[in-house]
């Protein structure tokens, strides 16, 4: 294993999760009933796309080949969500709850990567910058979920 291979693997794992997040936000935007939620979800999808691009750029800097696809598991999850949506209908509260659950997942993945002792300070700095965006999205969705539940 080359010195950068571990970092490239870690970054590619984060890229997959981030691409899954982009797809999840786009799906949520398409299914949302209210335009305010569609706008929020599309904005987050665009922001996550930028995060994925930043991570991919750093993989190239390390001499690796960045992944451009999400995970197979996310694909299976999307099929399940499509089935669930067909059965239960598209309810904004349910969509928001599902998005927030996805945000918990991506936040956790970034937090794990940031404490990895085998990551160089340069790569950790890139992950940390991207994490700030992820955390902001997580907090926004958490607040949105709690606000929708209070109505």
UniProtKB/TrEMBL annotation:
NCBIfam families named in the record: PA2169 family four-helix-bundle protein
Protein name: PA2169 family four-helix-bundle protein
Gene3D superfamilies assigned: 1.20.1260.10
Domain of life: Bacteria
Native source organism of the sequence: Sphingorhabdus lacus
Residue ranges of domain DUF2383 in the record: 8-114
